[in-house]
Structures are given as structure tokens and as C-alpha cells.
Design brief:
12 strands, about 325 residues, 8-stranded parallel β-barrel, alpha/beta
Length: about 325
């Protein structure tokens, strides 16, 4: 794909109010745990935000769960720690709610009801219901009532509510029941050249083409400027990460992808969340499109000690 073929897309993408020009906004996916698996504190998040703003000029992050129980012995109440920090540092956060099952959603909703108050609502940019739920086999018909309930419950405090999924689940029509419902006001599309096993020389073209396919399909269904759309995740593993097909881990390749892929998307007005902010040595392996497993502990743009691996500028 020729990169210039995305220029028409750039002209039609819905721009975020965070953007001060045609350039997109850069955010970071942010974990909830310290390297020792324990939950981050308000002070930890403040230090994270200082590093992100100071080195990348970024003032928005996204999370994945309200109650992070990925380490059962250390359950984390994510909003309880991150919301005071975003307020103190004048950041924005997109809070994610697990929603693969009704039970999971109900638990997340109950927890958020106790944490999200009018004091903190101005710092919550959006709520996402489910994270790649369709990719994992949840149907749009199952997920839609949970998105609708979240909009009814939290919509007055946080007007941007929707979901986030893999690019192909938008491009192939799997999400159409959600798109045509009129419920979501916010969507995030994940796209990785790495998880398709692409060599770094082809990774940027693959990433941008995948975004184009997904966003074009969404806009054909709902129209332009109807739903705000972000790139919810993209990235590349650095030194110490695992290879995936022809995609070779390494900080040089990570830097190359950031400078060519992420910077191109931002230049065309796409709002991008980089996965992820900091290395997380405690994390288990992840599964890619072919079912093979890969390391996910070295995906940070920063080390665990908050040192940037390369200049995070375009």
C-alpha cells in the first residue's frame, strides 16, 4: 500500500477536542502495577504522568480494568489511585471496564459507581466497555446491552462511551450491530503490524492500511463525525521481547516503528495510544493472531524506571 493512499482518510477522521490542530493526539496505555506486582499508588501514577508529559508531551492515558485482578493476591482498585493523580497533574484518562461476561461487567460497574464522582468526572475523557471482546469471541449482540447500560449509568458524567476492539472486527462487520445501534459515541481501533508477523520494513504500511480499513468501514456505516475514533493500541516490543513471525523484537525496530508508523498516523490527524508506556516485567505472555505466544514485558516506550528508550518526538 502506498502511504499517500491514507491522505483522504486523514481529511475525514473525526478529530478529538484534545487536538489543537490537524495533528493527532498521542496517548499511552498504562498498567496498574509496580514491577513487584503490587498496585500502583497515587504517587506512582503522578510519577508516571511526569515522565510521559516531560518526555513525550502526552497528557492522556488509558486503562483496561476497574478492578485489576490479574494478580489475585494484589487486587487493584484502579480509579481509586489514578483519579486523584490525573486531577493533580491535569491529565485525562480513558477508563476501561471488563465486559466479556455480564458478571464481569456488573462487577466493574459497581466498583466504578463508588469511585467516579463529579469531582473526578472532568478528568475522565471516555469509558470503554470491553477490550477486544469481539476478538475473543463475544458477539456484538452480547456486548451492546453492556455498552448501553454504561451509557445510561454514566453518560451524564462521561459523555464519550463505547468500546475498543481489533481493527479486523470493525473491518469485517462483526461490530456492525454496535455501530448501527446509535449507542456508542466513542470507539478505539487496535492495529499492530507486529502481531501480524510483519517485518519492520512492512510494519508501517500494514498498520496504516489496517486502520484505514477499520475506520473506513465504521464511517461507511455511521457517517463521518458521528463517532469519535482513536487508534486504541499500536506498538512494538523492544530489547528482551520475543519475535513473532517476521516481526523481530528490539529497541531499534521499536524506535523505527514509532518514528515511521506512529508519527505518520499522528501527522495525518489520527489520535494514537501507544502500547505501552512502561515495561512491565511481571506480565504473562500474550497470544497473537496465529495463536502463538509472545512476550509482553518489554513493550514500553520507557523502561520500568521511567527512562525513555528513545526520543519520543516526531
Amino acid at each position: 500500500m502506498y502511504l499517500s493512499s491514507l491522505l483522504p482518510l486523514a481529511l475525514t477522521l473525526s478529530l478529538s477536542p484534545l487536538a489543537v490542530s490537524a495533528r493527532g493526539t498521542l496517548g499511552f496505555s498504562l498498567g496498574a502495577r509496580r514491577p513487584n506486582k503490587q498496585c500502583k499508588t497515587v504517587a506512582d501514577y503522578k510519577a508516571d504522568f511526569d515522565a510521559l508529559k516531560g518526555n513525550a508531551g502526552s497528557t492522556i492515558v488509558r486503562t483496561y480494568m476497574i478492578k485489576d485482578i490479574s494478580v489475585p493476591e494484589f487486587p487493584c482498585d484502579v480509579p481509586a489511585a489514578i483519579l486523584p493523580a490525573v486531577k493533580a497533574k491535569n491529565f485525562k484518562v480513558i477508563l476501561g471496564l471488563s465486559a466479556d461476561t455480564q458478571e464481569a461487567y456488573d462487577s466493574e460497574k459497581a466498583a466504578l459507581l463508588s469511585d467516579l464522582t463529579s469531582e473526578y468526572a472532568p478528568y475522565v475523557y471516555a469509558l470503554t466497555i470491553g477490550s477486544e471482546s469481539l476478538y475473543r469471541g463475544v458477539s456484538a449482540e452480547e456486548l451492546l446491552p453492556r455498552i448501553k447500560d454504561a451509557k445510561t449509568t454514566f453518560g451524564k458524567l462521561v459523555p464519550r462511551i463505547g468500546t475498543v476492539d481489533s481493527w479486523n472486527k470493525f473491518a469485517d462487520g462483526a461490530a456492525d450491530a454496535i455501530l448501527t445501534s446509535g449507542v456508542p459515541t466513542f470507539l478505539m481501533v487496535n492495529a499492530f503490524g507486529y502481531w501480524q508477523g510483519k517485518d519492520i520494513s512492512d510494519a508501517t504500511a500494514t498498520y496504516l492500511d489496517d486502520l484505514q480499513q477499520a475506520i473506513s468501514h465504521i464511517q461507511r456505516i455511521v457517517g463521518v463525525d458521528t463517532i469519535e475514533i482513536w487508534n486504541g493500541e499500536t506498538g512494538w516490543p523492544g530489547d528482551g521481547g520475543s519475535n513473532y513471525g517476521n516481526a523481530k523484537a528490539g529497541t531499534l525496530n521499536e524506535k523505527t516503528f514509532f518514528k515511521t508508523g506512529v508519527c505518520a498516523a499522528l501527522a495525518w490527524g489520527v489520535n494514537v495510544f501507544y502500547f505501552e508506556a512502561f515495561d512491565e516485567s511481571w506480565k504473562p505472555k500474550s497470544t497473537g493472531d496465529t495463536g502463538a505466544q509472545g512476550d509482553e514485558t518489554h513493550w514500553g516506550a520507557f523502561t520500568e524506571s521511567r527512562v525513555p528508550k528513545y526520543a519520543l518526538t516526531c
